[in-house]
Amino acid sequence: MSLLERLNEDMKQAMRNKEKDKLTVIRMIKASLQNEAIKEGKDLTEDQELTVLSREVKQRKDSLHEFDKAGREDLVEKIRTELQYVELYMPEQLSDEEVSAIVKQTIADTGATSKAEMGKVMSAIMPKLKGKADGALINKLVQQHLS
Predict the structure, then answer these.
(1) Range of 131's domain?
(2) What is the pLDDT of residue 1?
(3) 72 and 102 both lie in a single domain
(4) 55 CA to centre of own chain
(5) How far apart, in Å, are the Cα atoms of 8 and each of 13, 92, 116?
(6) Measured CA distances, 76 to 59, 73, 109 (Å)
(7) CB of 99 within 8 A of CB of 138?
(8) What pLDDT does residue 134 have?
């Protein structure tokens, strides 16, 4: 089942169950996917869909951070709920240990030895971990292992 088919089924179910918040989030995800497809001029690949979902998660995490910093608890709860719904469509996230092992392996594969070669490592590792781990975590681990 493709992501759009799954979203459509979940949207119908959310309507039946009168889950207003979930329905809103699903509609936002669908709109983002459709906008990206229009921009590309063709149907999206799974990789492109994952990119859009990752962008949605990142936007919500950034909003969560900002609202939390501003002390807006009402909005923090709303964004947390949205984030939970968006993450339902993301691939299963890898643990910190699994990410660390992949980072070490990629550093060994690329032969990087200093932080100056971080770009080389990041460009090699991001396709492997796309959507499966947070980019900030990957960046932090690469820096740690290269220092």
Answers:
(1) 96-146
(2) 66
(3) no
(4) 6
(5) 9, 21, 46
(6) 13, 5, 41
(7) yes
(8) 81
Mean pLDDT per block of 10 residues along the chain (147 residues) reads 88 95 94 93 88 90 92 91 91 86 88 84 86 84 85
Is the Cβ–Cβ distance between 109 and 94 less than 8 Å? no
Q: Residue 79 has which token pair?
A: 């964004």
Q: Which tokens sit at 29? A: 């995800």
Q: pLDDT value at position 126?
A: 87
Give alpha helix (H) positions in 41-117: 46-70, 73-87, 96-110
CA 13, CA 111: separation in Å to the nearest integer?
50
Measure the CA–CA gap between 48 and 36, rounded to whole angstroms.
Answer: 8
Which residue has 């962008």 as its token pair? 55
Tokens 């781990």 appear where? 133
Rounded alpha-carbon distances, angstroms, from residue 37 to 71, 78, 83, 85 = 37, 28, 22, 22
Question: Closest by alpha carbon to 103, among 133, 75, 61?
Answer: 133
For residues 12 and 83, membership in a common domain is answered with yes
Claim to verify: residue 8 and residue 75 sit in the same structural domain: yes
pLDDT for res 8: 92
> Would you put residue 2 in left (φ > 0), alpha (ψ -120 to 50) or beta?
beta
- Residue 59 · residue 43 · CB < 8 Å: no
